[in-house]
Structure formats: C-alpha cells, structure tokens
Design a protein that fits this description.
The protein is α/β, with parallel strands linked by helices. The protein has two domains: 126 residues, NAD(P)-binding Rossmann-like Domain (Rossmann fold), CATH 3.40.50.720; 228 residues, Dihydrodipicolinate Reductase, domain 2. Helix content is 30%, strand content 27%. The chain is built from ten helices and 17 strands. A nine-stranded mixed sheet has the order 16-15-14-13-7-12-11-8-17. Strand 2, helix 2 and strand 3 form a beta-alpha-beta unit. Helix 5 packs antiparallel against helix 10 and helix 8 packs across helix 10. The protein binds nicotinamide-adenine-dinucleotide. Nicotinamide-adenine-dinucleotide binds next to helix 1.
Length: 375
C-alpha cells in the first residue's frame, strides 16, 4: 500500500524522518510503501535541505498549504511544543492521519484536546518514542510481560543527556517555558521513559518529584544572554500497583547527567529475576536469575527489531534503526497489519504522561507526594 507523507517542521527530527523513509527498502515484507512528498517550515534554509530528497514535490512555508494538498495521507509534525496543539488539530481537521512528536501538546489541557479530536474525527494518531523498538528495549518488555521475574521489587527508567553541563551552550526554544512548556525536561525526555512502563500497565498512584534548574541564562542566537526558565533535571519517585503490591518506580529525565550523551535505560527487578537494558551498551542485555550464586548474565543481542531488515543479525543497532522500526510499526498499525508487534505511543498514553508530569509539578511546589487521580 502506497502512503504519501508530509512533514511539518524541518529541523532535527524532520530530517531524521526523511532519513528513515529514504531507506525503507531495507525492511523485508513491510505492507506499506511510504513516500515523502511534501515538507513545511517557515525557514527557507530548513525546507531547502529537503531538495536532496528526490520524491519531495511541495515545499511550503505555511502548514495550511501542505494540508490543502489532497495527495497527502499522513502528516508527521516536529515543531516547538507550544505549536503542537494548533498544528495537530489542523492536521486532524484536514482529514489526514497524524504521527505527532512528543510530548503531544505543551500541557495536559492541550493533550486532552488533541486526543479527543483524534477520537471524534476517527483519525489514526500515534506519538513518537523510538527507543523501545531497539532489540534490548523489546526484550526487556517481553521479559517483564512474561511474568517470570517473580514478585516485582522495583522499576527504574530514565533518559539522560549531558550537553547542558556546558554553561556556554546556546539556548534554544527547549530552554524556555513559553515554547517548551512548564514541564520542561519532562516534556523533552519523559515520553521515552514512560512508554514501556505504561504499556506494561504500570500507572503511578503517587508521585514525589525532585525538579532542578541550573543555568538561568545562556547565550542567545543573536548575541547577549537569554533567560532559560525550564526545569532541567527531573527525578520522579512514583509508586505503582503491580499484582496487588505497591512498588517504587523511579523515573529520571535529565539534561545535566555527567557522561551521558543520549542514554535511555530501563531496569526491572523481581524476586526471581531481573532485566536491565541501556543504550550505553546498545547490543547488550543484562538478565538476572535467582540461583545459588548471585550473577548477572550479559547477552549480546545482535540486530533483531520487531520488523525484519536486510541487516545482518550480528550487527549492532543504533538510533536510526529504532527510528525506522518505530515508523514501520506506525504504518503497519495504521493499515491493520501490526500483527501483535509492539505499537507506538497511543493518544491515551501520551495524555497519561502529561497527567503524571502535571502532578510532578504540583509535587515540586507542595513538597509532597501527590496522589494521581486517573479518572
Ligand atoms: N523522538 C525524538 O527522539 C525527539 C528528539 C528531539 C526532539 N523531538 C521532538 O520533535 C519536535 C521538534 O524538535 P526538534 O528537535 O526537531 O526541533 P528543531 O528546533 O530542530 O526543529 C523545529 C522546526 O520547526 C520549525 N517550525 C517552527 N514553527 C513552525 C511552523 N509554524 N510550521 C512549520 N514548522 C515550524 C522550525 O523552523 C524548525 O525548523 C519536538 O516536539 C521535540 O520534543 C523528538
């Protein structure tokens, strides 16, 4: 099935999508054949980068021009968070399906609006979160779902960056509440952290948040300093019910984590076994089994995404690979061919993440653990 794709927002992530779609042929037997046909960005140089992609025919400065094209089936949007709600709703109202970048609106109110319009208009909508599609993320998920870990003791998950340790790193829209949202780093990194826990049904009952801000100003693009008022690091101590027992689940999202360039990790520990995976060792899965002696087993996973590719099974996976796998999952689910494989973040899960992050903001202000009412 041919699927015509348009991209709104031609920055870092818009270009990653062009990269993923341009090497679609590495997938074996995928039911869809996507083609990137249109891009939109108000900045001409951003649009012009896409002139190297031979299938792109429409270069729009305004997203309405792209949405007026009857040729496009699916729109991927990667713009600053304060623009999500308006542009996502315009996509849905234009009759097209939406692959939305996280955090799916600047706040909970926006996420609820997008989610309810998606339901009302019966559009297929999913939100971006690629790391669970790595072989290690998939195995950790399968092991936890399989129930062989015994009674769960605790869960830790996180996503860590370090480039903001440099006080001279220039500010961009992600450092300001107005454009990134009050939730700051939770909006930037949090969806990646909660995707697997939420999919396993682990909804926090309570959250105690420790949020930190570091450099209040950074060099601006046009010279001089600009205010940086977003939360930079977030540690959320949550409690989740698993099989009738409340266990601790610690979620970390950090822009200032020494030594970490883009480290996504998940650790799930139980009385009979445990599993740990981190992108720091992209092909390595650590598993624990309770036995006479205490030992963690290190397994080299190789290259086994949910969707088969031509890549040799012994090779190592990386960011472009899980991004491609996420798109393969999105388009397969859209045409009803996911076949039991792992799916992208749903609008409900994205809205849940906002509810958690809004409760975390409340916890930070009140210096208390907050009960989360999921109703
Ligand atoms: N999935 C991931 O791993 C990942 C990684 C980084 C960012 N993101 C998300 O992707 C989105 C974009 O982030 P980015 O890093 O690509 O940002 P970016 O700043 O690199 O790119 C944003 C682009 O949006 C354009 N833009 C601004 N207003 C626009 C409008 N009205 N219409 C069309 N384009 C407009 C800008 O000119 C810019 O080119 C955010 O939601 C962010 O959270 C996801």
């Amino acid at each position: 099935m041919k699927v015509k794709i348009g991209i709104i927002g031609c920055g870092l992530m818009g270009r990653e999508v062009a990269s993923a779609l341009s090497r679609w042929f590495v997938l074996e037997d995928h039911p869809c054949h996507p083609e990137l046909v249109a891009v939109c960005d108000p900045v001409a140089s951003r649009r012009d980068w896409f002139r190297r992609v031979p299938t792109v025919r429409l270069f729009a400065a305004d997203h309405h021009e792209l949405l007026n094209s009857s040729e496009i089936d699916v729109v991927y949007v990667a713009v600053p968070h304060n623009l999500h709600e308006k542009i996502y709703l315009d996509v849905l109202n234009s009759g097209k399906d939406l692959f939305a970048e996280k955090p799916f609106g600047v706040d909970l109110r926006a996420a609820k609006n997008i989610s309810s319009d998606a339901t009302r208009l019966k559009r297929f909508v999913r939100c971006s979160s690629e790391f669970p599609f790595l072989p290690g993320g998939q195995r950790a998920f399968e092991i936890a779902r399989g129930g062989g870990l015994g009674r769960l003791l605790e869960v830790r998950a996180g996503f860590l960056h370090s480039s903001d340790l440099d006080p001279n790193k220039p500010a961009n829209w992600k450092r300001r509440n107005e454009t990134c949202g009050e939730i700051g780093v939770m909006g930037d990194l949090g969806m990646h952290v909660v995707h697997i826990p939420f999919r396993l049904g682990w909804k926090p009952k309570t959250v105690y948040a420790q949020l930190q801000k570091f450099y209040p100003q950074r060099p601006g693009g046009a010279g001089g300093n600009v205010i940086c008022d977003t939360w930079d690091n977030a540690t959320l101590h949550t409690g989740v019910d698993v099989d009738g027992h409340e266990i601790p689940m610690r979620l970390e999202m950090k822009r200032l984590a020494p030594g970490e360039t883009n480290t996504w990790f998940v650790e799930i520990l139980g009385t009979e076994g445990g599993v740990k995976y981190s992108t720091k060792e992209p092909k390595t899965l650590w598993t624990f089994k309770r036995d006479r002696e205490q030992c963690w087993l290190r397994t080299d996973l190789g290259f086994n995404g949910p969707f088969t590719t031509i890549t040799g099974g012994i090779f190592e996976p990386g960011f472009p690979d899980c991004f491609l796998q996420m798109w393969a999952s999105f388009l397969a689910e859209r045409c009803g061919k996911l076949g039991g494989r792992f799916g992208c973040v749903t609008p409900d899960e994205a809205t849940m993440s906002h509810q958690l992050f809004e409760s975390a903001l409340k916890s930070q202000i009140e210096k208390n653990a907050i009960q989360i009412n999921w109703a």
